[in-house]
């Protein structure tokens, strides 16, 4: 299941990939860090080109299933305002073989960070910045 | 072989993240037409030099990352994609 | 947190490693498969040399923290009777860097399966067997 | 240097998994003493030949996997560890 939403329920994401025939599920949970490069983060704002983001997330799922011997993958990402400690992304992968599940889960988060059109703005006490936009 | 002629028409470009801040709006409308993604890119760099200072600037056409050589068609959905930072 | 218990609450295991300063959490969830080598599994029974199992699980946590740049690890394993689809083991790892979190999580489940004195008996329609005991 | 003399005493060995089924109990008591893990192992193989048919048989002493050369002391907690299969 591919989804962009305000809040992610981890149990639901795990549930969406788990069936009794698979032995292993791997999960990645990304959360808002309270510090970045030594500065205290007050909040993040996530913006998203939603239809394209969903397509890119579906592409990740499709390619992961081609590359690795996995059975199910779900990717959920938030939009809107998030505070330190809150969940940003949850990826769950179910497979018969755990090694493939680990590889596919890592591939998915690595690729998501490179290709999915979602942007985060970090808010500090003295200003805000779109992450990675400028050198 | 029929050669398609590009009409002069309003082209709306979706803006996100840093590009929205630079151009000052979430949609940029151009009353002009460009044969390729590369031509559109040149136009945007001329109009908004700050776009060239971004770490990268991809252009998506119909929700796919596009090469500069891609030809634009009327009705294409075009979006500027500054460096993504999801996850 | 290292724990051997009847039932594992995944949210609690994740919660036990998550703090707002870490950016990434990886989780492995092992569940009872409904088939093994073509046979339908009715249930599993997990037996455990508990004090030694806890020590070996603590050792995995300690060694994972030495080997990989991670901050927190929790390992929970069940004992007793389990049905297909039920959780057997949950491992959660929190780290600043997700690559280390993935590696440490995989290291932990691989090592657990080799060193922790826990045994499972598989029950089929026509008998039962201690897994991996005999050639 | 004082040489510790091993007393003849009941030694209780904890059994798990397949070893429990083979020996037929969850504790095996021996009214004998063995200098090393290897000697104990030999004794067990003689008494219960099926133990040799296991894929592996580790012996834990005081909750650590022990080498056959390890010397046993009175009061050691000894356990037979057939192939583990957690996870």
UniProtKB/TrEMBL annotation, chains A, C:
Domain of life: Bacteria
Single GO biological process annotation from the record: Mo-molybdopterin cofactor biosynthetic process
GO terms for MF: molybdopterin synthase activity
Keyword line: Molybdenum cofactor biosynthesis
Catalytic activities: 2 [molybdopterin-synthase sulfur-carrier protein]-C-terminal-Gly-aminoethanethioate + cyclic pyranopterin phosphate + H2O = molybdopterin + 2 [molybdopterin-synthase sulfur-carrier protein]-C-terminal Gly-Gly + 2 H(+)
Cited SUPFAM superfamilies: Molybdopterin synthase subunit MoaE
EC number: 2.8.1.12
Pathway: Cofactor biosynthesis; molybdopterin biosynthesis
EC class: transferase
Stored InterPro entries: MoaE_sf, Mopterin_biosynth_MoaE
Family: Belongs to the MoaE family.
Subunit structure: Heterotetramer of 2 MoaD subunits and 2 MoaE subunits. Also stable as homodimer. The enzyme changes between these two forms during catalysis.
Protein name: Molybdopterin synthase catalytic subunit
Source organism of the structure: Solitalea longa
Classification lineage: Bacteria, Pseudomonadati, Bacteroidota, Sphingobacteriia, Sphingobacteriales
